[in-house]
């Protein structure tokens, strides 16, 4: 396994290490690579173990999910074995580990290195994420018009990362405003960026349900269930299905 850690001059150092799975077992050691192949990055896992959590890994997880391209999945994982260098994350396939990922700027730097992103595009993604977080606050206050405006501004930035999430959030916002056709359009836009986006299919189903297109709503919900069977245990998803069956 290899690790990329920051040097004093902000460059990156490649070192051999071994990591463990979430259950404490040593992960299979991959073939040595001289660098991370940017085009092959499919998944980024952020350590959610106790030490990294204290160092800010939950915020790192949220930031990376907001700036990663739609083709890259971001999720939590167990200990990566470099607790003194946390928060840590690993890019798969390839097993390249990054340390000291506690800031939004560092998360953007990781996206530049892993995905070959332009630094300006990574900056736009951070700006879009900030707007999306402001929109969440407005939604909590019931200020749907302000939330819609903030999310529209985020979309206009054309960020490389998190665009599917922004469209999903605007879909939900517009649904709450009874703008059903526009909510459906946003859900579909989210799915153009990531066809296997579970929340995008659920948002699409919600819009169809609000428009009394029950067959299409059921199809959208079942597609989401096929992608991620675990959502069957979700209380909110059960409510959706029960609502649909009562029609």
From TrEMBL:
Keyword presence, Ion transport: no
Keywords (A to Z) from UniProt: TPR repeat
InterPro entries, per the entry: Thioredoxin-like_sf, TPR-like_helical_dom_sf, TPR_rpt
TPR repeat residue numbers: 198-231
Protein name per UniProt: Small glutamine-rich tetratricopeptide repeat-containing protein beta
């Amino acid at each position: 396994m290899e690790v990329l850690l920051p040097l004093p001059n902000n460059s990156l150092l490649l070192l051999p290490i071994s990591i463990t799975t979430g259950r404490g077992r040593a992960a299979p050691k991959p073939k040595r690579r001289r660098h991370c192949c940017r085009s092959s990055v499919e998944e980024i896992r952020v350590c959610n173990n106790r030490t990294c959590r204290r160092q800010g890994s939950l915020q790192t997880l949220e930031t990376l999910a907001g700036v990663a391209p739609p083709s890259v999945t971001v999720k939590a994982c167990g200990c990566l074995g470099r607790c003194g260098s946390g928060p840590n994350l690993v890019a798969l396939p390839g097993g390249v580990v990054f340390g000291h990922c506690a800031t939004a700027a560092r998360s953007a730097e990781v996206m530049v290195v892993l995905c070959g992103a332009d630094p300006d595009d990574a900056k736009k993604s951070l700006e879009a994420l900030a707007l999306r977080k402001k929109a969440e606050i407005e939604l909590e206050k019931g200020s749907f018009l302000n939330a819609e405006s903030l999310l529209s501004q985020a979309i206009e930035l054309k960020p490389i990362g998190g665009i599917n999430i922004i469209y999903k959030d605007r879909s939900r916002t517009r649904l709450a405003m009874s703008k059903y056709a526009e909510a459906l359009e946003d859900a579909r836009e989210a799915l153009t960026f990531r066809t296997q986006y579970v929340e995008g299919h659920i948002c699409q189903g919600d819009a169809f349900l609000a428009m009394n297109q029950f067959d299409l709503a059921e199809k959208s919900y079942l597609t989401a269930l096929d992608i991620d069977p675990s959502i069957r245990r979700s209380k909110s998803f059960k409510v959706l299905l029960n609502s649909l069956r009562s029609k």
